[in-house]
Amino acid sequence: MQKLGISPNVITIVCSLKACGNTGNLSVGKKLHMDIIVEQLEGNPFATNSLIYMYTKCGSLDEAWHIFEEMHSPDIISWNSIISGFAEQGENERALALSKQMQEQGLLPDNTTLVGVLKAVANMEAFEHGRRLHAQVFHSCEDQSIDLIVATALVDMYCKCGSIVYAQQVFNKMETKDYVLWTSLLTGYAQQGYSDLLFQAYDSMKAHGLQPTAVTFLSLLNVCSHAGLINSAYSILEVMCGYGIEPDIKHLNCIVDLLGRSGQFFLAFAVLERLPIKPTYIIWSTILGHCRNHSISELAQYVFECAVSDEEVESAFFVVMSNLSSEFVSEEYEDVLHSCYGTSASSSLL
DNA sequence: CTAGGGTTAG
């Protein structure tokens, strides 16, 4: 559009910023920020709120905060954007403090604020805080019908805090249940290792006419992996394909994890060879973790070499490797680790 | 045209 000589307006920029946020494209996002200045849209609340959205989604919290701070009178959307953004990036205390600050300024929290705050509380596994918020939600809606998205956030929060019973209560009280609400409970069962409950709830969900999604299957595979249910995992893969859902790297990683956990490294490698895409360092980390459990140092060294050739490799991988190398990898290999200074290895080793 | 829900493993 710009090549045709058409200047962007607020709408163009707002839509593009959303796309940048969703894909984590910070460099284009910054360019759009400049466009806002060029087009003299700096005071426009839509443009400004969209900038906050884009920067938080791209992980540039300082930049988002800077813009928020400069606003003359941030509206509820500005507050919610910054609160959700901080919560999403794990800046939980900051998100909670901002919600408090917002209310001190006389703005009432709405459902969106609540969802952001619940996310922060879930991240912190702050059960008591979550209970208080739940009570607050309950009293604030007169007909006692909780908003579906708030309910989903509550179920997720209770599950992350380890309280399945409260999660079930919230879930059961909802008259309309969509597939995301169901999945939040299923994922909770998976996270807490309740495989029987998970399979029951999965059947029940289907009986209610809701279709499983790729995320549903990921929860099922996850629980199989932790419980060591290899055959169940294989049949889940088949069922998935029957629904026309192609297993992606996350699903296959569950399978690799399952095989590695039981020491079946050859099978794990066979799965990797059949991958349509190159294994990521994340998959190598999974295998590496199991090398440690099975004390196989030769394999660990091979896997290490595969992983460092991934340009996306992150420091977390080196943490796994460095824990392991202190146990049984040779000193010579420590040198290889150190030679990775300058990549993300340095931050984790120092 | 701006804000909110579920996503493996280590």
* Poorly predicted parts: 340-350
Total of helices: 21
Broad structural category: mainly alpha
Strand/helix succession: HHHHHHHHHHHHHHHHHHHHH
Radius of gyration: 23 Å
- Please give the largest β-sheet: none
Distance between the termini: 48 Å
Shape: globular
Strand content: under 5%
Average per-residue pLDDT, rounded, comes to 86
Helix content: over 70%
Number of strands: 0
Distinctive features:
DNA-binding; mainly alpha; 350 residues; 21 helices
Give the SSE layout:
Layout: H1 10-23, H2 26-38, H3 45-57, H4 61-70, H5 76-88, H6 92-104, H7 111-124, H8 127-140, H9 148-160, H10 164-173, H11 179-192, H12 195-207, H13 214-227, H14 230-242, H15 249-261, H16 265-273, H17 281-294, H18 297-308, H19 315-327, H20 331-338, H21 345-349
The protein binds one DNA strand of 10 nucleotides through helix 1, helix 3, helix 5, helix 7 and helix 9.
